[in-house]
Specification:
The protein is α+β, with helices and mostly antiparallel strands. It contains 6 helices and 18 strands.
Length: 273
């Protein structure tokens, strides 16, 4: 039996923009190593694997190097595929059980809205080499359960960053969120996300980072709802609403590839360090 697999550009309605994610629909679970092989073969920032479970799906996410606990764009991509392929009705929510607990998505007129846990950061001393690795001095540095977050003076400084990924790889976190107030009236804030230790030098659009960015900017701007832009080379727009200990992430998605995975019975091979 061949396995359907898709590539979806998330947090965009334009092919080849936003963040591409793999979506693999499995009839049953296969080994972690096999899924890691598939993610390495797809060579995207994340590949999502789904198995039907009860009224929803069990969802797991793998980068080319590791399994991660939370991923926004691949969840948005997974929801998009479940509705597009008629696996779940468009009138109902997409329900997921994950390493970060229950997540859900619903289809709206302006795209897909994800319901995710907030992951606020607490201020912390600058870890050794962080500012050197970024090549910029941070106005603020904090840390949440996954990442460091660094606030820069302005958007231009953020866009001009050329990080030292070898230094960033040594940090004992998933990645580093860098943010600044937007210089354009269209957006409230901008960000970039670097995670070389997780196998992704720069992630194009990072939904889970906005679970931290939402509470961060809520405290600074005194509002609950934002329109954000992730200023990677591909770029992407994320609508963010903070609702207590949850964050609603809104965006669009477009399928760019449909295929069949023929390697279901191929032996899994160790991942090279």
């Amino acid at each position: 039996m061949n396995i359907p697999i898709f590539q979806v550009d998330a947090f965009t309605d334009t092919p080849f923009k936003g963040n591409p994610a793999g979506v693999c629909l499995l009839p049953e679970w296969h080994s972690d190593l096999w899924m890691q092989n598939v993610a390495q073969e797809m060579n995207l920032s994340e590949t999502a694997f789904l198995v039907r479970e009860g009224e929803g799906h069990r969802l797991r996410w793998f980068t080319p190097s590791i399994e991660v606990e939370l991923c926004g764009h691949a969840t948005l991509a997974s929801s998009h595929i479940l509705w597009e392929q008629g696996i779940i009705p468009k009138t109902g929510p997409a329900l997921f059980q994950t390493l970060s607990g229950p997540l859900s998505a619903k289809l709206q007129a302006d795209g897909i809205e994800l319901n995710f846990p907030a992951t606020p950061a607490q201020a912390c001393p600058a870890p050794p080499d962080l500012e050197q690795a970024l090549g910029a001095r941070a106005v603020y540095i904090g840390q949440n359960r996954f990442d460091y977050i660094a606030l820069l003076e302005n958007e231009q400084e953020l866009r001009n960053l050329h990080p030292n990924f070898d230094l960033l790889r040594k940090l004992s976190v998933r990645g580093v969120i860098v943010t600044a107030h937007s210089s354009e009236a269209e957006f409230d804030f901008v960000s970039r996300f670097f995670a070389p230790g997780a196998g992704i030098d720069e992630d194009p659009v990072t939904g889970s980072a906005h679970c931290c960015l939402g509470p961060f900017w809520q405290a600074r701007l005194g509002r609950d709802t934002f329109r954000a832009f992730q200023a990677s080379a591909r770029g992407g727009i994320v609508r963010v609403s903070v609702r207590g200990d949850r964050v609603l992430l809104g965006g669009r998605a477009v399928t760019v590839l449909r295929g069949e995975l023929l390697a279901l019975h191929f032996p899994a091979v160790p991942i090279s360090p």
